[in-house]
Amino acid sequence: MKRLFITIFLFSLVLTPATHFLKAVSLWDVLEENQSIKYILIDGAGPNIPTNLFNDSSITKVKVIYSYNQTHDILVEYTKNRTTKRMIPTKNISPFRISDWDLDAFLEKYHEHIKIYDNAPIKKWTLEITNFDIGVTVFMDDGVYSEFDCYGPENLSCYSQFHSPRKYTPNNTTTPITTKKNKKICGPALLVGLVLIPALTRRRK
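Above: the chain sequence. Below: its structure as tokens.
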């Protein structure tokens, strides 16, 4: 009987999808601190505000751009289930190493910033890293989103701001109303002028 239970347990492990054993994507699982890169983009999901932006359980995707040659770069996309690579036109961005940034100082400033959320639910978040900027964008459920940006990597300087939902304005509303009025007035006036000119000419004769 004991062997039967062991066999059933092992068989259930084989049938269980591999994705059940995969943890969330972490930047440190795909990148070394001294590796030369051009750009990093991390996507995360809500509803909780992330506390560790580089190794948070809400991370869903990590994109990294590596230098390749003078005409092309390599874009690598890491998710829980797979890793994909493709060539892209080279980006005019200076390469850097993640170790160039004082990430502890950045996270300290970031933790001060997220106190304003007061555990409010969020929809998603993104983190972008270049050689001169680290930016976090948090999207709320009501359409409001906030930006927290730090410039450096030396003498870290940070700021934050909130934005209301963006409103779409159709392009066909840019024509001034006065233009249409002018067209309506000019048409009859022109006809009256054409009729009066011959009449005045006859009177003079």
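The chain is about 30% helix and 30% strand.
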